[in-house]
Hints:
Elements: E1 2-12, E2 18-29, E3 43-56, H1 57-69, E4 81-94, E5 101-112
Antiparallel strand pairs: 1-2, 2-3, 3-4, 4-5
Amino acid sequence: MGHAVNLTHFWILPKGQFLTNSVNLSRDNYEAPELTISGMNRRDKTIQARAVYGAPLSFYVDEPVSWIWGKDILPGFLKDIIVSLTYEYSRAFSNITNYTYSNHKSSFMLSKRLEF
């Protein structure tokens, strides 16, 4: 049995950029012990924090190039590709040491909108 609270904030920034921040707090209480690990009932508390930043590929390529040379270089079918960067930190606390940990994750994603 457990409880969780999640807070998320989404910002829409100029020129197609976005930023998402989220924090998740959770608590889990297990009803019976895992006897192979410990005779105690397990109780966990977890914190996760995540930030995602994204922008169109044209923001990284066409914006600086057009400022220097005065023209765009990306072909039209590449202009709506979104570049996203994500960072996440997780921390778990448990009354059983085997289940206490911390973790850092990062990811890079390219996505494209398709229309039919």
